[in-house]
Amino acid sequence: MKINGKKAFVNKLLKALVISGAVVIAASNPFFGLKAIGAICKELKRKKWQNFRSGLYYLKYRGFIEVNQNPDGSYSVTTTGAGKNQARKYNLDDIAIKVPRKWDKHWRAAIFDIPAFKQKARMALLSKLKELNFIMLQKSIWVHPFECHNEVAVLAEAFGVENYVNYLTCSSVSSGKYLQDEFEKRNHIKLI
């Protein structure tokens, strides 16, 4: 089994557990408690019991879920706070930068120096920064007018480049007028 396929399955399993809350798994049929979760039904049909069990073990080992045996022999599976945070990390399509009523006149900069062996992660990060309306100041410096520290941190961690990405808040940028004009033009909003 490929590592990426296993990781994708484990992430889907964790997300399904977060959505469902607590799940009871019968000892005789381990899929019983999860069959009601539409998000993972297809995966369960394709995966063997061993893959499912190793996925649960991995999530438990990482502290993302708690598994407790009930008196009737079934198991209760619940997600921990860390599990919920982990599931949020992989929901990158939902990341958005909140637009405040009034701009505080500060620029936020995502600065990175990502090594060549992480080129795919760098490209994924750049793609997401563009999608979030960051403006390139230099090849490895991308800026945004609104608070986005958490969003940048989640992206960096999700792509495995958190050690190479820094975040700055700047009250003055020499090309501030250009950045403001460019941001307003691209996003059809007035920074006030």
Automatic annotation (TrEMBL):
InterPro entries: PaaX-like_central (IPR048846). Pfam families: PaaX_M. Residues 101-175 form the Transcriptional repressor PaaX-like central Cas2-like domain. This is Transcriptional repressor PaaX-like central Cas2-like domain-containing protein.
